[in-house]
Amino acid sequence: MRELERYYRVLEIEPGATLEEVNQAYKDLVFVWHPDRIPKDNLRLQKKAQEKLQAINEARDKLRSFNGKHQTIYNYPPTQQKKSSPKTSHPQTSQPPKQSSDLSGKDFSRANLSNKDLSGRNLSYANLSGADLSDTFMHKVNLRGANLSEANLFRANLLLADLREANLRSANLIGADLSGADLRGADLTGARIRSGERLLVKLIGANLAGAIMPDGEIHS
């Protein structure tokens, strides 16, 4: 139990935290300590970030394994698990398969993917129109040519994501982090990125060459 308490401390959460709280703490800390967010020439901080990331990953994996003995990844009560049947009113596309990283061309339209970890997944040319991707962690995700029209990307982490030729028409990008993302040729017509005159999307280092901006102008 002392080892488990150490993992909780690493993730800066209280012992006995739910799996949802573990996942959220993990995403928050990765966002803070990811080496890609630290100047490459600062070797001291780069080393510290890598050590932090290793500890954070280990803690998340251990606590997931521990909690997985008592609940599913979606925190359904045990009674629901026993009563579940192969036939369900929810589409199978509502959650991406956990084992496969290649989800290219899949249909996740209107799916609830809020708070999920899709980092590194290949979702090129996938249909995510109208999907709820709020607070989703999508570091280095491949969304080239994907349909994200009307998707909710509120506070989504799209750090270094590949969004070339992606359809982001009328998507909600308020609070999203697109730092370092490749948005060449993407269509952001009507996308929500501002509140009044205030830009509420992080675009530090993003490549917007040829992208259609929310006002219809093509970025040069």
Automatic annotation (TrEMBL):
InterPro entries: 5peptide_repeat, DnaJ_domain, J_dom_sf, Pentapeptide-BTB/POZ_domain. PROSITE patterns: DNAJ_2 (PS50076). Residues 6-78 form the J domain. Coiled coil: none annotated. Residues 68-103 have a biased composition (Polar residues). Residues 67-115 are annotated as: Disordered. CDD domains: DnaJ (cd06257). Gene3D superfamilies: DnaJ domain, E3 ubiquitin-protein ligase SopA. SUPFAM superfamilies: Chaperone J-domain, Pentapeptide repeat-like. PANTHER family: BTB_POZ DOMAIN-CONTAINING PROTEIN KCTD9. This is Pentapeptide repeat-containing protein.
